Amino acid sequence: MRIAAMVGAPDPEEHTLAAHSGGLTVAFRKLAGLGYDGVEFMTKDPRQLDGASIRRLLDENHLEPGGLCTGHVYGEDKIRLVDPDPGICRQSMARLKEFVDSAVTYCGQDPRSPSGARGESVTQPILLPPWTGQKKPFGN
Question: Given 10, 25, 32, 36, which residue has the most CB atoms within 10 angstroms?
């Protein structure tokens, strides 16, 4: 079994419940020193994360990415995957795609990618539920 701790990335504006927040360099060093195997990122805007730097810090500290916590996406930005407003649903799907694209840069592979190449962008279309009135795949 592997154990990961939550790290608040620098982008949430509100207080996080993460054990460590702010500077990732210090947080990763502390977690590695405490014997953790990985980190879970608490973030709201994955475009603010530098995937190459995160991968380097993970490698230097012998840590693995364990997950992404998206609570601040709703808590601060008030967007969620299920909403009666189709515009909010579209915003949510766009943010979800950003999370996946960002994670690929430091996780090592896209689980939906046949080649699993690190850094490969997600190219598969995202289909929204029929009630959104979507006419074509999102992101294309």
Answer: 36
